[in-house]
Write a structure and sequence with these properties.
249 residues; 2 strands; globular; mainly alpha; two-stranded parallel ribbon
Length: 249
């Protein structure tokens, strides 16, 4: 879901325009909650989905195939960090539309290549109409690639570092309504603080919590959503990564 215009860690719902979420929550609170549950959250294929996903077919595909699926691949994790940073102040839908442009412009989200981008590369990216042409966000993606490589050097992989914040096991939440889903948690606060200490930028707690939702560290599909149960069953099949270096106290 997306975020309304804000600084990088002001509270917002997970991947949903704040105005859209406010409307959905107001409908949930009307005297016709059953109508809302049976109507607005069901799409043409008769499956119940998180209401935020019904805005657009692109959202539906993202919701059904990616959101909340645990990610352990370093390049994929870097991709989400870049995209989440680019989203700050905008809608996630805007970012999804530009995703393939970002993949092309940012070397297939290869952190080793992005970390070597020069000022000339930054100028090239700022001229690219397929990107969100914000100087701070583009510079941040390069800075984050460099920090990403340092984490890889310290741990066996960025994934090992990343998943230690939940002890290698996704957290299954049981939210029945959008209004119950937090914009940030103590865990995202700690993760954000550690990322900043390691030199990452555009990683405020709200951005980090949205990242945690996207890459499956938490399962925030609503309990009526068909994906909630599917993700839970997927968790039972996961093999925890082997132990590596511990996070510093």
């Amino acid at each position: 879901m997306s975020r309304s215009k804000r600084k990088d860690d002001s509270p917002t719902p997970p991947h949903s325009d704040s105005l859209v979420k406010a409307l959905l929550i107001s409908l949930e609170n009307t005297r016709f909650p059953r109508l809302f549950k049976k109507g607005m959250s069901r799409s043409a294929d008769k499956k119940f989905r998180c209401p935020w996903s019904l805005r657009d077919p692109l959202y539906i595909r993202y919701h059904d195939e990616e959101w909340g699926v645990p990610v352990f691949d370093d390049r994929k994790l870097f991709e989400f960090l870049v995209l989440e940073g680019a989203q700050a102040g905008l809608s996630w839908w805007t970012v999804l539309q530009k995703r393939e442009n970002y993949r092309r412009a940012f070397a297939g989200f290869d952190p080793k290549r992005v970390a070597k981008f020069t000022l000339r590369d930054q100028a090239r990216l700022l001229r690219d109409p397929g990107l969100i042409r914000n100087r701070l966000k583009i510079a941040s993606a390069i800075q984050n690639a460099q920090a990403f490589l340092r984490v890889q050097e310290e741990f066996a992989s960025f994934s090992d570092y990343h998943w230690k914040f939940v002890d290698g096991k996704p957290l299954n939440n049981r939210f029945a309504a959008l209004k119950e889903i937090p914009a940030r948690t103590d865990l995202s606060d700690a993760f954000s603080k550690d990322l900043k200490k390691r030199g990452f930028n555009f990683v405020g707690s709200t951005i980090v919590y949205a990242h945690m939702q996207a890459v499956g560290m938490v399962n925030d599909h609503l309990t009526d959503c068909f994906r909630h149960g599917e993700i839970r069953r997927l968790h039972s099949k996961l093999t925890p990564p082997p132990p590596t270096a511990s996070l510093p106290a």
